[in-house]
């Protein structure tokens, strides 16, 4: 009962937030429907019993009542369906916004590593229709119940056995609830395969992946993997559906037998004179309608049960966000941070068996450029994620001027960080929007955007675009497409927007640039580090010509720091760094 009330509260609030007028209109129509059903049956009895008695007024009133009830029923149904569609679309939008808000409002990105989070978001996304209609489903179940009670009172007046017909409603209702549980459990089991299927199939139509898939002639294989996942999730869902249908059929078989017995009883009562013909018509009309009411109740219950599962995902997501926010720090990062430290820091990804970072002790001082080097998979990007507060270390801590990063409000630390990354995302907006978003406070400042564009060399190709910085970067919308290197430069300009950052991270953002361009970019950031008070630059690169300029070079191997020092120190010590540097330099020679 408590869960039902919670569901009603959540879904009504959602519907209310999405479209007030539609919610009120639907509520009013559902109440009218409850009385229309009984009104129609009563009018039938009065018409039959008064036919041929000369009671014209009674006949006219009975006919008017019948007509009105039938009209409310027919028109009501149609309007309810229309309003429901409309409301469902709006609730869908509201829910999407809320889920995005929950995801982006979380202090770290840890939730994105959790399959359960993705499963619940995707199941919720597929159930917004049910969730939108569940408030109305509950109201309809209530209205059907009122209608059933009124029918039972009238039927019992004819014969108590007819009144008991209502008991027959319980097997289909109860068994349909069991059926629904089977369906939901199957959907839950199928969710991961369903996501994989969708994701793989999407690869074929997204421009970034479609080309590479064709070059490798891998479309068939990827399609086959997607099909395997589809076959698996459909098999699981079909099995659930089969079990559910079986339970529902048993319920309706019991009901149909009872219904046939009732009609037989009503016929025999008219035969023995125990009931008038009008009462017989009333009994048949009510019994028939009762079947409709039971069916309506069963449908509403199904809808509500589906919505209850969706609401459970919704409540889970909200609770998850609340729990995460409750343990997150709230102190704002104010003045420039002079020292960022990692102390005994280790990290294991959620669900991961092995730590990918262990025992990291490292201090970054303001004014320093620190380079991280190491083989693929050594843990460089993960270290960056800890420093930018995307993940909290699972061991040890990150300190800002001696205080744990966990004490600070994550958003305020992010406002003090900036960066460009190896897999920078392609923001397909206008050039100025794609750059301006690097510092939202200055996103409308054309002068600031221009400076960022010029400093990073983006103007060299943007000025040749048909509408300059107002050019739309989206081919699918008739806009312009950039090359891989141009997209990377745009990401660098975005990172350049923020002038009051404390930590700037360059995590291989120049892989697609030519060596000369890369060199210029790193010089630019080194200048920024020297100029701005409190600026710390963290550089991840595989190009040693760039790395050698750093004040401190840190070599990571298999999640641990194995060497640190300046280029000269490390070359003199002749360790891992010197070997890596030599092997790259000899290739150039
Ligand atoms: N989101 C993730 N979930 C689980 N494991 C991950 C995740 N991201 C990275 N890893 C694992 O963590 C280890 C370190 O990865 P990381 O990206 O930090 O390495 P890297 O040194 O930056 O490598 P590269 O030079 O290839 O960019 C790898 O073994 C990788 O498989």
TrEMBL record:
<keyword id="KW-0067">ATP-binding</keyword>
<feature type="transmembrane region" description="Helical">
    <location>
        <begin position="21"/>
        <end position="42"/>
    </location>
</feature>
<keyword id="KW-0472">Membrane</keyword>
<dbReference type="InterPro" id="IPR036640">
    <property type="entry name" value="ABC1_TM_sf"/>
</dbReference>
<feature type="transmembrane region" description="Helical">
    <location>
        <begin position="263"/>
        <end position="287"/>
    </location>
</feature>
<feature type="domain" description="ABC transmembrane type-1">
    <location>
        <begin position="24"/>
        <end position="306"/>
    </location>
</feature>
<dbReference type="GO" id="GO:0140359">
    <property type="term" value="F:ABC-type transporter activity"/>
</dbReference>
<feature type="transmembrane region" description="Helical">
    <location>
        <begin position="131"/>
        <end position="154"/>
    </location>
</feature>
<keyword id="KW-0812">Transmembrane</keyword>
<dbReference type="GO" id="GO:0005886">
    <property type="term" value="C:plasma membrane"/>
</dbReference>
<keyword id="KW-0547">Nucleotide-binding</keyword>
<dbReference type="InterPro" id="IPR011527">
    <property type="entry name" value="ABC1_TM_dom"/>
</dbReference>
<feature type="domain" description="ABC transporter">
    <location>
        <begin position="337"/>
        <end position="583"/>
    </location>
</feature>
<dbReference type="InterPro" id="IPR003593">
    <property type="entry name" value="AAA+_ATPase"/>
</dbReference>
<feature type="transmembrane region" description="Helical">
    <location>
        <begin position="240"/>
        <end position="257"/>
    </location>
</feature>
<keyword id="KW-1133">Transmembrane helix</keyword>
<feature type="transmembrane region" description="Helical">
    <location>
        <begin position="160"/>
        <end position="179"/>
    </location>
</feature>
<dbReference type="InterPro" id="IPR027417">
    <property type="entry name" value="P-loop_NTPase"/>
</dbReference>
<dbReference type="InterPro" id="IPR003439">
    <property type="entry name" value="ABC_transporter-like_ATP-bd"/>
</dbReference>
<dbReference type="GO" id="GO:0016887">
    <property type="term" value="F:ATP hydrolysis activity"/>
</dbReference>
<protein>
    <submittedName>
        <fullName>ABC transporter permease</fullName>
    </submittedName>
</protein>
<dbReference type="GO" id="GO:0005524">
    <property type="term" value="F:ATP binding"/>
</dbReference>
<feature type="transmembrane region" description="Helical">
    <location>
        <begin position="54"/>
        <end position="75"/>
    </location>
</feature>
<dbReference type="InterPro" id="IPR039421">
    <property type="entry name" value="Type_1_exporter"/>
</dbReference>
<dbReference type="Pfam" id="PF00005">
    <property type="entry name" value="ABC_tran"/>
</dbReference>
<dbReference type="GO" id="GO:0034040">
    <property type="term" value="F:ATPase-coupled lipid transmembrane transporter activity"/>
</dbReference>
